[in-house]
Design a protein that fits this description.
This protein has about 260 residues and is mainly alpha-helical. Helix content is about 55%, strand content about 10%.
Length: about 260
């Protein structure tokens, strides 16, 4: 939960690592003996494959009548018009055009859809991260945030991975991303930057503690059992672990749900 107080750490912990992994997987498909023309043909095939993925999701959302499908429509419309029509019409992409013209077309076709998607991603994170920080102790929020970030990285860079097919080497990019990941992990592990709480005494992390007394009844109304104790309601994943380091009695506690089976 180091990202709870500093959400920008999500980029270094999960974003860069996901991007490096995806680039590495794409780099495995590159064969060193391919000619320049073969590389551009493969790049064009990957472009069509990425566009088909967006079309598939667009059709699903349209059939479900979900209004958010306009974002997927942008990822289909602008690449088709700018690269599929303008780029091919004026020979600006692939082996027919220059590297600069291809990059200009490739970047311009993603400006509007990527801006829309990044705006939605930012809005989702402003809601998603506070919820994950208070989701309780039953679910590991790091897994959910990591999975959520990986999916968003794949969507945001779905058209960018095409250029890997025509790159001389992707090793430098991967090493740079891994360096960012290593630096972020070091900062989280060795500095107070990774502490998930603010440390402000005026706004401490809440922990709900209740003294309870319970009585269980049979179906005929007679008392089956009685007990009492403390009901601890942790609001974040670290709550029970922190109490266990200071209170020895916490080591023998059990979830309340287990009592329903008795």
């Amino acid at each position: 939960m180091s990202w709870y107080r500093s959400p920008f750490l999500v980029t270094g912990l999960y974003g860069c690592s996901s991007l490096a992994a995806i680039i590495f997987i794409h780099s495995l498909t590159i064969q060193g003996e391919e000619s320049i023309r073969e590389k551009w043909v493969k790049e064009d095939i990957y472009f069509d494959a990425a566009r088909l993925i967006w079309i598939f999701f667009l059709v699903i959302l349209e059939l479900a009548k979900i209004n958010s499908s306009f974002i997927f429509c942008a990822w289909v419309l602008f690449p088709t018009l700018i690269r599929g029509v303008v780029g091919n019409l004026f020979n600006l992409i692939g082996p027919k055009g220059s590297v600069r013209s291809h990059l200009a077309i490739h970047i311009s076709m993603q400006i509007i859809p990527l801006s829309l998607l990044l705006y939605c991603v930012w809005s989702m994170y402003t809601v998603f991260i506070p919820i994950m920080g208070r989701i309780g102790a039953q679910i590991n929020p790091d897994l959910l945030v990591g999975l959520f970030t990986t999916i968003l990285v794949f969507l945001c860079t779905s058209y960018m991975f095409l250029l890997i097919q025509v790159m001389t080497s992707s090793r430098k990019v991967i090493m740079c991303l891994l360096f960012i990941v290593f630096t972020t992990v070091s900062l989280v592990s060795l500095t107070p930057l990774g502490f998930p709480y603010s440390g402000d005494e005026e706004s401490p992390a809440p922990m709900r503690l209740y003294h309870t007394e319970r009585t269980f009844y049979n179906q005929n109304g007679s008392i089956k059992s009685e007990d009492s104790g403390y009901w601890i309601v942790p609001l974040d994943y670290n709550g029970p672990k922190l109490l266990g380091t200071f209170i020895d009695q916490m080591k023998g506690v059990k979830p309340i749900d287990c009592d329903m089976l008795n």
